[in-house]
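Field: sequence (string)
Field: structure_tokens (string)

Example rows 1 and 2, in order.
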Amino acid sequence: LLGDYDTIYCLVSGGIDSTWLYVMLKQQYGTKVVPVNCYNPFETSVTLDRLQSDDPSFLSIAPHKGLNYGDILRQAFLKLPEARELKKRGKYHKKIFPCCYYIKHKAFLNDPLFQKPGTVVVSGIKRGDGTQRRIWLTQLSKGQEPRNQSKGLPTHFHQHVGGQMYFYPFRDY
């Protein structure tokens, strides 16, 4: 499904799912695969260090220089009581934490590298990663994504509003 793309950006966090996905893609598509991690100065990962040293195309993306990671992470930790309460009521969602938006999503929204024609961003999210992801991936599997890009057909692809083409290989897992 990815053979026609010139560049395959594989999002890697250092966890087992994204690392395995990167290794499998690299075996299949070789130098077309570029590992991408959203930089966080507080994150340490032997796996990410190894990927960075083994693959010279490794990219570390940061939203912008003035971002205060400490403040964003502090705000996220202060939201933990609210998250626990929402979880008790069955209404938990990750969006209450500002860290993912500012450290990850905003980095991609503002980087033209991932909007270029012939590129695809591979995300290793799975249905079991949370309610919002389960809903989103189920919609893709049924061809019911909100913008109806697949014209009602099941798909692993989605073109985001920012222009990035995403591929979700673990859609059904």
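Row 2 begins here:
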Amino acid sequence: MPAMINDPEAVARFRNQLVELTEHLREQMRRTDAAMEEAAAEWDDPQFKKYQAEFRQDREVFDPLCDNIEEFEQGPLFRLQQILEEYGNL
């Protein structure tokens, strides 16, 4: 049975991991976008254009996902960390 995390330092590490994850994902997406645009400018291929259109559709859900992760990290997880710190100081 999983145990509840009641360690504010563990929550802080998890929050930092989420921040690093979203930063890394956004950077990788910027690189992928640039590579896709470069390839599209040099390569006139119907299959590539189809793939590029599908990639753009997938891309539309990417930013909201990162935003949700950031909101979770800054909202509920931050508050949980505060509560655990307060609890530890009793």
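free_text_note (row 2): Residues 46-88 form the longest helix (43 residues).
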